[in-house]
Automatic annotation (TrEMBL):
PANTHER family: FERREDOXIN (PTHR36923). Keywords: 3Fe-4S, Electron transport, Iron, Iron-sulfur, Metal-binding, Transport. Its cofactor is [3Fe-4S] cluster. The keyword Ribosomal protein does not apply. It comes from the Bacteria. InterPro entries: Fe-S_cluster_ET. Pfam families: Fer4_15. The keyword Disulfide bond does not apply. It comes from Gordonia alkaliphila. This is Ferredoxin.
């Protein structure tokens, strides 16, 4: 499974960073960076919760 971001929608609210800091971070300019696009199967439910928590619905799973 892959985590994707629509950067046109993303406001860098960092909800995802707080929930999964090993997968997401903000760079020095406060832009979202996906550190680990490929997510292991055992973290699928966790990533679904992170995606559902995005206030701008910018994240998705593929």
């Amino acid at each position: 499974m892959r985590v994707k971001c629509d950067f046109d929608l993303c406001e860098s609210n960092a909800v995802c960073v707080g929930m999964a800091p090993d997968v997401f971070e903000l760079d020095d300019n406060d832009y979202l960076v996906i550190l680990q696009e490929e997510v292991p199967a055992e973290r699928e439910e966790e990533m679904r919760q992170v995606v559902a928590s995005c206030p701008r619905s910018a994240l998705s799973l593929d």
